[in-house]
Amino acid sequence: MKTLMNQSKFIAILIICTAGLVFPVLPCSAGAQTAEKVRTDIDTAIEIQKKSQARRDEWETMKSALVSEYIRLTLESQALEQEHDTLVRQVAAQKEINRSLIRQKAESVRVLKELPRFLDTVLNQLDALVESDSPFLRQERMTRLDTLRRMLGDPSVTLSEKYRKIMEALFIEAEYGATIEVYQERISYGENRETLVNIFRLGRVSLFFLTLDREVCGVFNPALGRWQTLDPGYLPSIRSAVDTGSKRRPAELLDLPVGRLNPEGGKS
Length: 268
What we know:
alpha+beta, 5-stranded antiparallel β-sheet, 5 helices
């Protein structure tokens, strides 16, 4: 604004000086009229200059505001584009999740339909295994299978619980192959009636017995499906095996008759 005032003053002085040079010989009245006209023209020029400057200032302010608004809108547009791209990816991922869930649901429906038949099949296989296996813990294992069979026919038991119990029985049967144990059971061997003996189970490989007086030992012959006595020379090993299985002594290497047995009960 100071620049505008200075410019206006300069124009006024210039016009006055010019007027003095141009009209030196004019009469007083004519000179007064001329000076008045000059002042009017100066005032008009100053006013025009002020208005022009005001419009320029207004335009600069508007321009600055428009530039700021443009920058803001540009940044907002970029942010919206990024958000749009993110949403597009999320929608695509969600659609894939939905498709996966639909496939899983269909698979679950199929499994639910087939699971009862599968559980029956597994139970029948367990039953066949116990029947054809060495007769260790026979009563305990048969009782477990009978309980499972009643449970599978009970509609009040959930399918998940039936599955859990069947798998639990499978794991128990599998563990028999990797463990040893000693328990007491009545068996018949030779010409003797049922006698209470200590049974030593060596995984699923062999079953040995030792009488309670520790004087007679034997083995179960799966080929004949019966118990047979062993040579007394095996008594030390069988006694040690029974003590180890009962946790009365630490584990050690033992010479046990593990292998195919001949009909007479000796080791081949």
